[in-house]
Specification:
With about 50 residues, this protein is mostly helical. Helices cover about 45% and strands about 0% of the residues. The chain has 2 helices and no strands. The longest helix is centred in the last third of the chain and has 18 residues. The radius of gyration is 22 Å and the shape is elongated. The chain starts with 9 loop residues before the first helix and ends with a helix. The relative contact order is 0.07.
Length: about 50
């Protein structure tokens, strides 16, 4: 079977930014309950001041 000219090579796919494995701790998405409460409190105070 002939390869299509539009098909990416294995090397192209592996070096694509979206296909890279995540680096531990680089983009930390978890946060503590205290951090969540603080963010919620800040958001609530910003909403009240803009009204």
């Amino acid at each position: 079977m002939a390869k299509s000219g539009k098909q990416a090579s294995k090397a192209d796919v592996q070096t694509t930014e979206l296909n890279k494995m995540p680096v531990s701790g680089e983009a930390e998405t978890e946060f503590s309950a205290e951090e969540a409460a603080e963010a919620f409190k800040n958001k609530q105070s910003n909403v009240r001041t803009s009204e």
